[in-house]
Amino acid sequence: MAIERKTKNLPPMAKYRQVDIADLKTGRHGKHHSLVQGIVQELVTLKPGSALEIPLVDVGGIGLANLRSAVHRAAASNNLNIETVADDGKFYVWRADSKQVG
Fold first, then answer.
1. ∠ CA 28-30-32, rounded to 5°
2. Which of 3, 21, 31, 43 has CA 20 to 30 A from 9's CA?
3. What is the CATH number of the domain that holds 83?
């Protein structure tokens, strides 16, 4: 009976290993991070009324939906409001505030 009391007072065995938070990578860097960051950097310097034309065959196999999503996420984190359109194997992106009327 004395053994039962000792095991009842012990905390249950941990199923998962504990690690320090300081050792974790906290940023999200997917496999197309450098591509998306390059697009955002070009958007920052893009002249008003212009769009970037990105051939989909040049983006390393990333699908249009994933590319569009990644570019929107990266632009939002850089406080850029963008618009996109795609046709004929090309992806176009521009700053929404630089759209010309007329």
1. 135
2. 21
3. 3.30.1370
